[in-house]
Amino acid sequence: MKKQLLTLVAAVGLALGGGMVQAADTVKIGLMAPLTGSWASEGQGMKKIVELLAEQQNAKGGVLGKKIEVVTEDDGGDARTASLAAQRLTTKGVATVVGTYGSAVTEASQNIYDEAGIPQIANGSTAIRLTEKGLKKFFRTAPRDDEQGRMAAQTIEKLGFKKVAILHDSSAYAKGLADEANALLKKKGTEVVFFDALTPKESDYTAILTKLKGAGPDVVLFTGYYPEAGLLLKQKKGMNWNVPFIGGDANNNADLIKIAGKAAEGFYFLSPPQPQDLDTADAKAFLTDYQKKYNELPPSIWAVLAGDGFRVMVAGIAGAKSTDATKIADYLHKDLKNFSGLSGPIAFDAKGDREGEVYRVYKVDADGKFVMQKL
Amino acid sequence: MEEFLQQLTNGLAVGGIYALIALGYTMVYGVLKLINFAHGDLFTYGAYLGLTLLTSLALTDRVGFALGVLVLVLMVMGLVAILGAMLERAAYRPLRESPRLSAVVSALGASIFLQNTLMLVYGARFQVYPDEILPAATLDVFGLYIPLMRVLIVLASVAMMVALYLFIQKTRIGTAIRAAAIDQSAARLMGIDVNRVILLVFLLGPALGGAAGLMVGLYYGQVNFTMGWVYGMKAFTAAILGGIGNIPGAMVGGLLLGVIEALGAAYVSIAWKDAIAFCVLILILIVRPTGLLGERVADKI
């Protein structure tokens, strides 16, 4: 009896010990994404991409001779949920974190990761101040709003518009972009005849459009997200008002066309290149694999940028030959140059921002296709 | 002046939808003193079921636009009514004798459950009604642009509200509902089956909410599984504004809230329009704590 008990204890001990060894045998990379909430389609895409990349990397032997394990937490596209998600990830032993989409959501998690000494790489957060806080371990594969603001002002000028109306949705991202474009346009002497915000998630924007129309702009710059842009375009057409709209990069989503239908024709927006416009060999191969596995294209470039975030972090761990946060961050700041990302070459400046021009101008054609413009 | 009238019609169209949803809140509150937080989600179900039925049955292709939409409205109202009754059975009836707070928590739970079920079934992306279902005619009244559909939406809302009002005021069943709203135990002593009255309320309110969801889907085209939240909040506000528990109050409150929002956006600031609407709510509650039409306590529901 005693002997049996001993064997049992030994067996349990072995099993436990074995389990622990196994746990330390993987490199955990956290993914924080809006799997639910109003940006859920982006979040689901992020998860699919990162999981596929992890699978492929593991087939090639993982990193540092260990398998990669992706630990996903849902931030709900909401700052409060995000801070809880971030706290959960910090307790799960992740080496680095990829994510997330919205600027305000990323902001809620930044300090939590920084204090826990975990490098974070955001994929959709373009608000300027995220990288102006002096956080040494924060990176992003997304471009910054001021770059987009510059591009917006430049595009409006190139297209020859003189009276501009600016509409945002009060989110950190949309307001940042609207402010930046507003300042630049005024500096150049372009008249800004309207500047205000709508309330997202509503269905009826005719009150706002009526007021906009009263201001008599010859172009409207809308810096918010695609669900509202789609409705604005549709209701604008219903009003028989033919003013052109220019949108920010949060409009780069195929659902915009579904919502606006034919009314989307002629809509301009700024964006990093779309998934299907990515032309590097790596990107093409990856998109083929993605389509094979999930039978669809990634929902947007932002999800692809999460994939780039994941690849950068894997390269960082491999380059630093360690999962030590400071070493990874140093490597990414200094030694990672011309990394072949899915969305083009990637390098980071001292603030953790991506270097180089990312934005393009797109226009929606009569068939609802996004066509890259040469201006 | 032209812009004012335009904004007025904008506000009335949105307000009509708020009013229809507000009726569901106010009826349940009248009888059960419970805020049915899942009501906004029943509205969303109306929008989604309408989309599914519309695309799978191709009603409007078979029997023409007017008849097709009518049949669709009836089907959606029926299905959402059944859903409402199931909700009452599962989430509220077991808690009938419990403290009121338990029922409120149960309502919130039901809301989360309904919302996430919808997301798992239909996916997280926006769903879009087919484009060419509705006639895109626009009425031109003295230079005012008013799409025909908007007029129809307001007319349909008003018709449903009037029908409900007459039903509650003029029929025996309506009298039973009013009696149960005033005093449940006394109503029971008078031979009224209170459980059936409550079930009926949970059939009527969700049916109207479902119809509102279908109208939003048909007119705005875009539906999303979280849309019930914003509409629910606004309709709830409208119900309080008009005096919760009072049916004409919900109608007036809804239309008023829509108009206040549109005019606030037009003449003060778009970004502040919700704040303006809520300020008006606070002011009205300070002057009339029971809401605009809340004084007729005996007439509750």
What is the fold's blueprint, element by element?
The complex is a heterodimer of chains A (375) and B (301).
Chain A lengths: L1 H23 L1 E8 L6 H20 L7 E8 L4 H12 L5 E3 L4 H14 L3 E3 L15 E3 L4 H14 L4 E6 L3 H16 L3 E7 L8 H10 L3 E4 L3 H13 L6 E3 L7 H6 L7 E4 L9 H14 L6 H20 L4 H11 L3 E3 L2 E3 L13 E5 L5 E4 L2
Parallel strand pairs in A: 1-2, 1-3, 3-4, 4-5, 6-7, 6-8, 8-9, 9-10
Antiparallel strand pairs in A: 10-13, 11-12, 13-14
Chain B lengths: L1 H31 L6 H19 L1 H5 L1 H28 L7 H23 L4 E2 L9 E4 L2 E4 H23 L1 H11 L1 H6 L4 H27 L1 E2 L3 H16 L4 H21 L5 H15 L14
Antiparallel strand pairs in B: 1-4, 2-3
Helix pairs in contact in B: 1-6, 1-9, 1-10, 1-11, 2-4, 2-5, 2-9, 2-10, 4-9, 6-7, 6-9, 7-9, 10-11, 11-12
**Low-confidence regions of chain A:** 12-23
Span between N and C termini of chain B?
38 Å
Net shape of chain A: globular
What do the pLDDT scores of chain A average to? 89
What profile does the largest beta sheet of chain B have?
Answer: 2 strands, antiparallel
Overall number of domains of chain A: 2
Number of helices of chain B: 12
Biggest interface goes to: A-B, 35 and 38 residues
Strand order of the largest sheet of chain B: 1-4
Radius of gyration of chain B: 19 Å
* Tally of DSSP β-strands of chain B: 4
Radius of gyration of chain A: 23 Å
The DSSP helix count of chain A reads 12
* Total tally of structural domains of chain B: 1
Helix content of chain A: 40-55%
Global structural class of chain A: alpha/beta
Mean pLDDT of chain B: 89
Strand residue content of chain B: under 5%
Low-confidence stretches of chain B: none
Q: Which H/E pattern describes the elements of chain A?
A: HEHEHEHEEHEHEHEHEHEHHHEEEE
How would you describe this structure to a colleague?
Chain A is an alpha/beta fold and 375 residues long. Chain A has two domains: 2-143 and 279-346, 3-Layer(aba) Sandwich (Rossmann fold), CATH 3.40.50; 146-271, Rossmann fold (3-Layer(aba) Sandwich), CATH 3.40.50.2300. Chain A is built from twelve helices and 14 strands. In chain A, strand 9, helix 9 and strand 10 (268-271) form a beta-alpha-beta unit. The longest helix of chain A has 23 residues, at 2-24. The termini of chain A are far apart. By secondary structure, chain B is mainly alpha-helical. Chain B has one domain. In chain B, helix 7 (172-182) packs across helix 9 (194-220) and helix 10 packs across helix 11 (247-267). Chain B is globular and about 60 Å long. Chain B starts with a helix and ends in a 14-residue tail after the last helix. The mean pLDDT of chain B is 89. Chains A and B meet through helix 2, helix 7, helix 8 and helix 9 of A and helix 1, helix 10 and helix 11 of B.
